[in-house]
């Protein structure tokens, strides 16, 4: 009986340890799933807001153009020019000239006035943050519209009438579409649009996710039934349990090795000191011909043992710890060295690299960039600085001054993640960049979502007005290429041609494409493994 006690104690210890890790794993898995769900739905709410802001920005740009052409009158010639302008912009249903109090004087399409159920006074309109725009709901038979008012004088204003398409809000995952609703409203509570499969079905026990625009009096809300949410993406539960248990074992092992107290930031410093951060190259190609016109360099961490660390495992830490600046200069210097023969042989070939807003605004950024490029004997006009939007540009005036200085020296500037990042179109105009990069989110849905096509067409029209070029990111299929070409996009990048490649494989790809051109054969876009 006595000899059995140690065995019972050992069994009890094992059971207690297993139970402790089980409870910890359960709570960790549940928390992980809830966090992922909340983050995903929060991102979808942000996307609805960005889409709505794009629509208002598009209408504002149209009104500015009409005012600049002195067309804010009711004479027949002006109305005919306005009708042509509206006809060329499908998102705008009508343009009206109104008095200072908001009352209508005349309309480009006077017959649309018959569809109005009501018209609000200026005092009841919602004001944008800068006070230059007023937004209001236009109640119409067959569905409400959004009015965007812009003053063009002391006593007159132009109003663009935007149709609110429910497809603009059809973004919910398939598992949640029947158990959710997406709404767009003004900050005064006036509802502008809603998407729900069953308007008569109530959601008594729903979780709400809300976003308010920082620039416009707009608010978006996504509501999801709790029951549907509890089963959505639940397949991550057991993998998360396994990860939790593994972390527990790893934590115990690390505690036993007290002689090592260094953390992940120290690992980054060692990697920088050893020059382990290297550029991978992803081609940027013409959509119509597949011809490679440049590349974007992306950071990869290649350790001494040859293993490659994915960027999401170190980029956020590098940004938060301030190591991203040294890392950026390290990979740019190596990329310029690797690509020097190509850049010298083809003066139209462009090399793009990412810069976070804090790095762009840091002291000595422009001087260091000039010195790095000059030392490599490369022309500044072949270098594209891509400003990422993971962090917001807090000082737009200072950023615009840096961009202007870069452009004066010949560098080109692109804005990355357009459509889901922090900058609205008005901020893009103020920054003075050369290129807009359409986020992969829009490319993924352009062949299945008509509202995405409308948004991309808006971006193309505005880019042309601002004399900017466009590059689409994340292209994976030929259908996406055709859809982007139809919208007016000229260049892109993505796995359809190649994923980010180490320099050796990228050089082989360039040589293969060059040989194809020399032989006179047509260049089909093809996937590189």
From TrEMBL:
It comes from the Bacteria. The keyword Cell wall biogenesis/degradation does not apply. It holds the Pfam family CSS-motif. Its EC number is 3.1.4.52. It catalyses: 3',3'-c-di-GMP + H2O = 5'-phosphoguanylyl(3'->5')guanosine + H(+). Its main location: membrane. GO terms for cellular component: plasma membrane. SUPFAM superfamilies: EAL domain-like (SSF141868). It is found in: Cell membrane. Keywords: c-di-GMP, Cell membrane, Hydrolase, Membrane, Signal, Transmembrane, Transmembrane helix. Residues 1-28 form the signal peptide. Residues 261-514 form the EAL domain. InterPro entries: CSS-motif_dom (IPR024744), Cyclic-di-GMP_PDE-like (IPR050706), EAL_dom (IPR001633), EAL_sf (IPR035919). It is a multi-pass membrane protein. This is cyclic-guanylate-specific phosphodiesterase. It comes from Bradyrhizobium commune.
């Amino acid at each position: 009986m006595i000899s059995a006690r140690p065995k019972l104690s050992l069994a009890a210890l094992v059971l207690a340890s297993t139970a402790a890790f089980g409870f910890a794993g359960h709570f960790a898995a549940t928390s992980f799933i809830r966090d992922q769900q909340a983050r995903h739905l929060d991102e979808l709410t942000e996307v609805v807001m960005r889409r709505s802001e794009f629509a208002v920005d598009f209408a504002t740009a149209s009104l500015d153009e009409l005012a600049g052409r002195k067309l804010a009158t009711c004479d027949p010639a002006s109305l005919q020019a306005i009708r042509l302008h509206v006809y060329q912009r499908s998102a705008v249903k009508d343009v009206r000239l109104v008095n200072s109090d908001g009352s209508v004087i005349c309309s480009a399409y006077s017959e649309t006035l018959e569809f109005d159920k009501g018209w609000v006074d200026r005092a009841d309109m919602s004001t944008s943050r800068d006070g230059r725009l007023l937004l209001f709901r236009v109640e119409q038979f067959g569905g409400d519209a959004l009015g965007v008012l812009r003053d063009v004088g002391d006593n007159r204003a132009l109003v663009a009438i935007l149709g609110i398409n429910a497809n603009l809000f059809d973004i919910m995952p398939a598992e949640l579409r029947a158990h959710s609703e997406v709404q767009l409203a003004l900050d005064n509570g006036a509802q502008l649009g809603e998407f729900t499969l069953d308007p008569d079905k109530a959601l008594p026990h729903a979780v709400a996710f809300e976003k308010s625009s920082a620039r416009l009096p707009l608010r978006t809300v996504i509501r999801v039934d709790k029951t549907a949410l509890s089963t959505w993406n639940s397949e991550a539960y057991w993998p998360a349990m396994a990860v939790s248990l593994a972390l527990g074992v790893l934590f115990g092992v690390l505690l036993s090795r007290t002689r090592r107290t260094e953390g992940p930031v120290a690992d980054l410093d060692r990697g920088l000191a050893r020059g382990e951060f290297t550029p991978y190259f992803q081609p940027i190609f013409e959509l119509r011909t597949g011809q490679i016109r440049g590349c974007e360099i992306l950071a990869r961490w290649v350790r001494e043992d040859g293993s490659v660390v994915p960027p999401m495992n170190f980029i956020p830490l590098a940004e938060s710890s301030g190591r991203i600046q040294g890392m950026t200069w390290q990979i740019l210097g190596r990329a310029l060295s690797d690509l020097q023969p190509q850049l010298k042989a083809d003066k139209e070939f462009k090399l793009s690299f990412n810069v976070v807003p804090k790095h762009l605004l840091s002291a000595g950024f422009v001087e260091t960039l000039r010195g790095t490029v000059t030392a490599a004997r490369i022309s500044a006009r072949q270098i594209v600085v891509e400003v990422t939007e993971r962090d917001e540009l807090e000082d737009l005036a200072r950023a615009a001054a840096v961009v202007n200085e870069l452009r004066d020296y010949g560098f080109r500037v692109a804005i990355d993640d357009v459509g889901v990042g922090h900058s609205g179109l008005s901020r893009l105009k103020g920054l003075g960049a050369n290129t807009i990069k359409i986020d992969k989110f829009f490319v993924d849905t352009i062949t299945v979502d008509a509202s995405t096509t409308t948004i991309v067409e808006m971006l193309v029209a505005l880019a042309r007005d601002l004399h900017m070029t466009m590059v689409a990111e994340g292209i994976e299929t030929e259908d996406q290429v055709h859809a982007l070409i139809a919208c007016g996009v000229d260049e892109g990048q993505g796995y359809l041609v190649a994923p980010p490649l180490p320099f050796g494989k990228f050089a082989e790809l360039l040589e293969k494409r060059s040989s194809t051109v020399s032989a006179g054969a047509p260049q089909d876009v093809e996937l590189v493994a």
